[in-house]
Amino acid sequence: MIQLYIPLNFLGTLYREIKQSLADLSRMFVLMDQAREVADAPGAVPLQLQGQPELRFDDVQFAYDPARPILQGVSFTVPAGRTVAVVGASGAGKSTLARLLYRFYDVQAGRITIAGQDIRQVTQDSVRRAIGIVPQDTVLFNDTVAYNIAYGRPGATQAEVEAAARAARIHDFIQSTPQGYATKVGERGLKLSGGEKQRVAIARTLLKNPPILIFDEATSALDSHTERAIQQELSSAAQGKTTLVIAHRLSTVVDAHEILVMDAGRIVERGTHAALLAQGGRYAQMWALQQSAEHQ
Ligand code: ATP
Fold this sequence. Notes:
By secondary structure, the protein is α/β, with parallel strands linked by helices. It has helices at residues 2-37, 94-101, 124-130, 145-150, 158-167, 171-176, 194-208, 224-238, 273-279, 282-294, and strands at residues 55-62, 71-78, 83-88, 109-114, 117-118, 131-134, 212-216, 242-246, 258-263, 266-271. The strands form two sheets. It has a six-stranded mixed beta sheet, sandwiched between helices. A hairpin with a 2-residue loop joins strand 4 (109-114) and strand 5. GO terms for molecular function: ABC-type transporter activity; ATP binding; ATP hydrolysis activity.
């Protein structure tokens, strides 16, 4: 029996290894595709920033596939140092706003500006250096946790990495693992929960310390304790930065300077939490639904 078990076990491991390599390869192709989507304009110059920048989407239209428009004339401004939140049904186009701002794709009409500069006219690299993204689902490298955090600022010292991890409330967890910051994480290392991965991403972003932040909130439910802790970390990271939050839980957006409600690629309502509740429209309905779900 044991003789049969060993080869079967080996085959199982081999299968997992191959599957993993394919997953890594497909991820690499996705990244390469995204990289190929846009190129620097001839003579593009680096983005010029002084203090906190203002972000502006000006009548933006975009489709991944020409036959299927996604964003249909989206305009909004995130004033310097403020937070604007985007809410709406799944598939409304919320994450697409983040992808366009990070310039994974270019708009087909309208324009996006950072501090008054059209992002198509400046170097892609300078745009990406100015933005920190905490994505829905963080992909960690198959490397140490220290490497994964320091990726936010190559050359960061161990003390700086630990300070960022403390601020993202992941330091104690890292210390509790047998190899601490040298622990390998990612798909071939220690598996982290969604909340832990998001904290690593927050630590990475804190270390990068960019003037613009994008938070794409995880759709998957975290336990309410973790969720509250992450929300606190996110709002303290956003203090004084120009921030776009793509929110799935309305409790996150209550304090936003402005909330945009999206539906099928358009902004259908906008205002502060109080103004939108008073309006009694889509947002008020979503709020009532989430409140009753939370109190069940
Ligand atoms: P969720 O709340 O579920 O994250 P969302 O509002 O962020 O949704 P997007 O991710 O912006 O929605 O997607 C908007 C639409 O664009 C969806 O219908 C989606 O299927 C489509 N879409 C997203 N990415 C691509 C892509 N790479 N190629 C083609 N279509 C895409």
